[in-house]
Design brief:
Number of helices: 5
Strand content: over 45%
Distance between the termini: 185 Å
Radius of gyration: 48 Å
Order of helices and strands: HHEEEHEEEEEEEHEEEEEEEEEHEEEEE
CATH superfamily of the largest domain: YbbR-like domain
Shape: rod-shaped
Helix content: 10-25%
CATH class of the largest domain: Mainly Beta
CATH topology of the largest domain: RNA Polymerase Alpha Subunit, Chain A, domain 2
Length: 316
C-alpha cells in the first residue's frame, strides 16, 4: 500500500491535468503581460492656440507647436494618439503686453493613466500692441514693358485709398502700399484687372470693402522720323520750270508701326503753278505741299519749305 503522502503528490500533479495545464499557460501569459506592461516615456508635438483680446494684436512670433513628453504604462501609451491632443489654449489679457507665458502640464489634456512630464519650451514670449487703423494711398505696380511699338500712357488703381489695420507701431511706418505687380510684357492693348494689395507686413491687413481694379492704358508709341531727299515737282502747269533746291527733307510724326512701314518712295513735294497766267520768263518763291502722307501721320516739318521756281523762256 502506497504511503498517503505519495498518493497526495501523485493526485496533485496528475488529477485534472488538462485544467492545470490551462491554468499554467494563463499564469505564464499573465506574467509576461504584466512584466512587459511597464512604464514608457514618449514625446511628440502638440498644437498651441493663443487667444488675443479683440482690440489687441499679437506682434511676436511664438511657436504654434510645443514638444510634450508623456509617461504611462505601455498599454496606455500605445493607445494614446498625439494627433488627437487638443490645442494648448493660452488666453491673453490686455495686461500681457510683453512677458513670458508659462505652459504647464495641467494645460495639456491627456487621458487617465498618462502624465505629462515635460514641455519644451516651458514658456513662450508674447508681445501685444493696441490695434490701430490708418488710411493710406494705393499705388499701382506693373512689371515688364509693352510691345516696342507701344507705350504706357497711364496707370491707375481704383479705389486709390484703403484702410489698413495692424499694430500701432507698424502703421506709423507706412505711408502708402502698392498693388501686386501686373506683368505687361509684350502687350499691345489696354489692361484691366482685379488685384490684391501688398502691405509688406504680415501683421498689417487691408480692410477692403470693394475690389481693387488696376488699369493700364497702352497706346501706339508716337515717334518722329525724317525722310530725306524727297523730290520736288511742279503741278498744274505745262511750262518748263526749274526748281531749286530739287529735293526737301520731310519729318513725319505718328504711330511707330506706320512710320516703320512707310515707303519713302511714295512721298512727293508738289508746287502748284495753276495760278500762273503769264507764261513769260520769271522767278517765283513758292511753298511745296507734301502729298501721299497716310492720314494717321502728321507732317511735323518740311525743310526747306520754300523753293525758287524759275519759268524757262519759251522757244520762239
Amino acid at each position: 500500500m502506497k504511503h498517503p503522502f505519495l498518493r497526495f503528490l501523485r493526485g496533485l500533479f496528475v488529477n485534472n491535468l488538462y485544467l492545470k495545464a490551462i491554468a499554467a499557460i494563463l499564469t505564464v501569459a499573465l506574467y509576461i503581460w504584466v512584466s512587459e506592461d511597464r512604464e514608457t516615456i514618449v514625446s511628440d508635438t502638440a498644437p498651441v492656440r493663443i487667444v488675443v483680446p479683440d482690440d489687441m494684436i499679437l506682434v511676436s512670433d511664438p511657436p504654434d507647436r510645443v514638444r510634450i513628453t508623456i509617461r504611462g504604462r505601455w498599454s496606455d501609451v500605445q493607445r494614446f494618439d498625439f494627433t488627437q491632443v487638443e490645442p494648448i489654449r493660452i488666453d491673453l489679457s490686455r495686461t500681457d503686453r510683453d512677458r513670458m507665458v508659462n505652459i504647464t502640464s495641467d494645460m495639456v489634456r491627456v487621458p487617465p493613466g498618462i502624465r505629462v512630464t515635460n514641455i519644451d519650451p516651458p514658456a513662450i514670449h508674447v508681445l501685444l500692441e493696441p490695434e490701430a487703423f490708418k488710411d493710406v494711398l494705393v499705388t499701382p505696380a506693373v512689371s515688364g514693358e509693352p510691345n516696342p511699338a507701344y507705350t504706357v500712357t497711364d496707370t491707375t488703381v481704383t479705389p486709390n485709398r484703403i484702410t489698413l489695420r495692424g499694430p500701432e507701431s507698424r502703421l506709423e511706418r507706412i505711408s502708402s502700399v502698392s498693388t501686386e505687380p501686373v506683368d505687361i510684357t509684350g502687350r499691345t492693348r489696354p489692361l484691366r484687372r482685379n488685384v490684391r494689395v501688398e502691405t509688406g507686413d504680415a501683421r498689417v491687413n487691408a480692410e477692403i470693402t470693394e475690389p481693387l481694379v488696376l488699369e493700364v492704358e497702352i497706346e501706339t508709341q508716337e515717334v518722329s522720323h525724317t525722310f530725306s531727299d524727297i523730290p520736288v515737282s511742279a503741278v498744274n502747269t505745262g511750262l518748263r520750270v526749274d526748281i531749286e533746291p530739287p529735293t526737301t527733307d520731310v519729318t513725319l510724326r505718328g504711330p511707330k508701326p506706320l512710320i516703320d512701314d512707310l515707303d519713302a518712295g511714295m512721298l512727293r513735294a508738289e508746287i502748284d503753278l495753276g495760278d500762273l497766267d503769264d507764261p513769260s520768263a520769271a522767278t517765283y518763291s513758292r511753298e511745296a505741299e507734301i502729298v501721299n502722307v497716310p492720314p494717321e501721320l502728321d507732317v511735323a516739318r518740311v525743310f526747306p519749305q520754300r523753293f525758287r521756281v524759275t519759268i524757262a523762256v519759251p522757244d520762239p
